[in-house]
## 1
Amino acid sequence: MKSISLYSDNGSWLVKLHPFSKMFYLVAAILIPLISGRLFMFVITILVSICMLGSARMLKKALPLIAFSFTIILTIFLIQGIFYKDNDSLLLSLGPVNFYREGLLYSAHIGFNILNMLLSFSILVLSTSPSELVEELEKKGFSPKFGYIINSVFQIVPEMMGTMHTISDAQRSRGMETEGKLMTRIKAFLPLISPVVMSALTSTRERAIALEVRGFGSKVKKTYLYSHPYSTADQTMKWVSILCLLAVIILRATGIL
Amino acid sequence: MGKLFKTNFSTAVIVLIPACIGINYIGKLFAQVLKLPLWLDCIGTCIGAILGGPIIGGICGAANNLIYGFTTGDNITLVYALTSLFIGVSVGVMARLGFMESFPKAMITACVGGLAAVIVSTPLNIIYWGGQTGNVWGDAVFAATQASNLPVWLGSLLDELVVDVPDKLITGVIVYLIVSKLPEKLTSLYDANAVVESLD
């Protein structure tokens, strides 16, 4: 069964880091350029994220995550470059179409912000196992019931995808059309999805009974199987992120940036 | 009001939430496989909201976007957690008010869900994307409004309206057909207003 999580253990330093230190970096990398409000700050955080991904040999896996956003960034450049409300100074004209400086700068801000968010998130997503993240959160007082919800999504989705393939095959073998005109495809949606949904809902009953039997609802404090102590690298990453964020806030507040 | 938001946090309801999140994912996947120009990614949220009430609907919606955002790298969905949350809550409230009993009433619920999505998404679209949605039809509307010098928020609102309301209407049809066929043995598990009668 194919997992929906993109995490894979390639033994690099990013995987070995504590999930929380990666989260500190994530928050800092997203907030610093937004607080500073400068375009070059986006470039800096984007480059830092790319270097980190590269050194952990994950850049190749991050590419498909970023690639899908390129089409929307492109349309933002087109629409805002031509129609932005404060468009004033003409930058270049291609035939009948005029691109303006203000619109392009505005779309550069949006584009860099998206790229920056995608890259810093891919650091967390590609190098952290969801169950480890949930376990660390639970140790910090996160509700175990919500922890279960998160963990079980990763079990249920591959299971449902298996059911989905079975049902698609079964309906096709009965002669149901899944290709062709829009109306045909809309009509195919219901016979495909309803058996998957029905089976998923009816199986929740059994799942609930099985969990109850194993003491899921008990109020006793739980113990954990794994421990992940903070290393020096974790401390460095955490404090560098916090200090950089504070520095930018102070510089911004005093008006230097 | 107390009854409207009453929620039962039993194990059965906790188990319902991941199932609904899975249903959202499968709906989106089927829409992609069949190349439909719709998202259909909140079927599970609506089912959760109808079965478990507004609070469970809200949790389903928000958890859906947060989980996929944090783990599959699709973190654009992260900012729309707020939208999903409000879809769940509004559909849950409508269902508790009895707007899920017949097909026309279910369509009203779907419209309310769609409008909730439009109202919450529009500011998010303006903040993150400069007003666009990424859907071809919606963005064509947006470009047309911007070309005729209408304000950004109006263009963005129309952009979102063109996409979201038809999407939620079809979701509503599917959800109604599925929920009305569920066995009572199952739905009674989630009923927060159920009373246990004892014989002694």
## 2
Amino acid sequence: MRPAWVRRRPPPALGVAAALLVAAFLAYAIWGFRAAAVAGFAVRSCTPLALAAMCGILCERTGVINIGIEGQMLLGAFAGFFGAAAFGVVFGVLAAAIIGALGGAFLAVCAVSWRVDQIIAGAVINIVAMGFTTFFYRPGFVIGSLPTWQIPLLADLPLLGPIFFRAQPLAFLTFAVVIGLQVTLFRTTWGLRTTAVGEHPGAADTVGVNVARYRYGNVMLGGALAGLAGAMLSVEITGSFDRAMTAGRGFLALAIVIMGRWRPMLAWTAALLFGLLSGLVNQLNFDQVIDVPPQFVAMVPYGTTIVVLAVFSTRVRPPAAAGRPYP
Amino acid sequence: MSDSEEQPGADVVLEVRGLTKRFGPVVADSEVTLQLRRGEVLALLGENGAGKSTLVKMLVGLLRPDAGEIRIGGDVVRLRSPRDAIGRGIAVVHQHFQLVPVMTVAENVVLGAEPTRRGLFDHRKAAAEVRALSQRFGLAVEPDAVVQDLPIGMQQRVEIIKALYRGAEILILDEPTAVLTPVETDELLRIVAELAERGVGIIFITHKLREVMNGTDRVVVLRDGRVVGDVATADTDEAGLAALMVGRPVVLHVDKEPATPGATVLEIRGLEVDDDRGRLAVRGLDLDVRAGEILGIAGVQDNGQRELVEAICAMRPRRAGTVVLAGREVEGLDVRALHDLGVAHIPEDRDKHGLVGGYFVAENLVLNRFDQAPFSRWGRRDFAAIQRWARQLIADFDVRTPSVYARTDALSGGNKQKVVVARELSRESVLLVAAQPTRGVDVGSIEFIHQQLVAARDRGVAVLLVSAELEELFALSDRIAVIREGRVAAVLDAKSATRETVGLIMAGAAGH
């Protein structure tokens, strides 16, 4: 019996993605622009989730459970927006990554150096982020959302073009991060060592892999990604900041990590499914095929999370050392 | 091979001189001096607490010596970490394997020193390296197998290859046979001999005398942190080594009269029990234990022994079957009720199920009847009575504790075990279930516990003994039941059975 993530198996993400693609084209052929609208909505709404899920994957694969993703996103959204409002977009985005990484550093200090319960440390991040951003929030600032970039030629492809090749900068970054992580986790020594640290830190330690350094590094890198995911919400998509604007997306990301079995591409596919479901309900509601209050539409991702976790969480195996301090 | 003409004593690869380590007032190792030659298998023998592990930790850089020096190939070295040690060619195979279960053999071997190709991890090269090493040293492994799917003996081989990959010339095996089946043990001894022939110096840590006699060239015996013997294996014998180790002559063979079994006390039919993961571990097991006999259960680890014991002792629900104790079905009874029926239990994991670590020794000694007179009157505990009783048991069972009011978790493993044994045997019982009663216990205490088990038998108690040590089973049992895949594969008369037969049935090789 091989564990699901062993790399010599054909990646399951590929199969799911292929099925989705076929379904999408079929839908596009039948319903035309409506299907395209749903797909576009799905990708746009899932991208911040996917980036945040990469944070979860990085952290848990090195053995640190990060439930503070929500807080790190919120900090990122806050710092990104006000940084961008004051000093420009580039500064804002950098500020978001840095403040997210600082959140990660806090978690790493607690979890790695002080051996604090990781759930508690993560909860602290969430509470502090909520309090901090709410306290310093000042209404009245406005910035425009980021421009949409097009990749020449590819952007003109039917269906796929508008979805993957006509997007905002951070969305492109997310695609790159997901693919990059998939490659580095499974094909480089860094990935091998990260896996070893998350599965059996003792084994890694005795062959000279510095467990603490890997955990610090990956948790901070993960935090930066979560911060960017936050910036995507405020700077890139809406061009505004609201209190608690992450609305639980950090926790959705954790569900996506589980559904994606701690693999970047599969997690991205899982996020896409989330987005697709929301998009579908949205469109059906818009077309008045179904008629429910918008609050119920907004509930779709959270309801899905409950179902997904109930179905998946008992069948998949997290990294063995996740949540445990070492030594 | 061609190395056989080498002169012994010519090349010392590792030399330890006057190595001393103190922990506060406790001296763990005192002026330990020893030499390891190229291609030599050196047994490091000693009881628990004799200073073996401290010595090893200093040799692999986990602890710094307070005095003395370590020389490798003639140079004095200071080892600061396991990485330092491996850089100097010293590697240790721990009792608990340091392998990542979900990774492949090749990945585990190269972890930390991975071959790369154009910046990416080079799987093919890693597998090739493992294959080359496995051929050169006669250690058969499959590089692409996932470690968690391999049997323990194979995992140990992976550990050894891991050490060799890192260029280890001095290999320290820390109690390597503790987890192995008899067949695997023989295989390991063969591998060790092979490695030695290829010039690897090996320190073989053990407290099993048979392995010392069978597989090593020289023995260094440690007692209370001092080297009390350094002899060629050929010039000594088991009794001599045991005496050196304990500091007094030890009776290795338990003196016991032939059993006079009486009525059947425990009758198990068609027992089925699940393990922790909900898979069937005991699959239709039948067993009888009679009064006044010791029935030993032999078997490779994880063949249902633990689940069997826990089902008998009402610590685990059963799925099917009957368990009849002295003519009475015990279905639905809880631990306490069974206990009142006269079941005594020496659990496998004394720290988890046998003792409350934070309690005083005295409290643990009355844990099975603290609420009964004379230890409790009208719901109020009588500490004077408890103390008197505890003093008596401590004297009778030779528990080494500073006081009856010492915290139990401060005692050594052997003494903790004696607390459990004392408590369980100090009360009249009809059935004694003893699971690994001497695991992690020093030789002196093993001898004592063995005598106590035989004494219980002679009082007419039915004793069910589960042990991973074949020596122990043969020394104590009147009958031996071999358990395999949750069923009794054979029941043998201990007097006529041989180690080899039992080993083969355990491994599933003999047709029974």
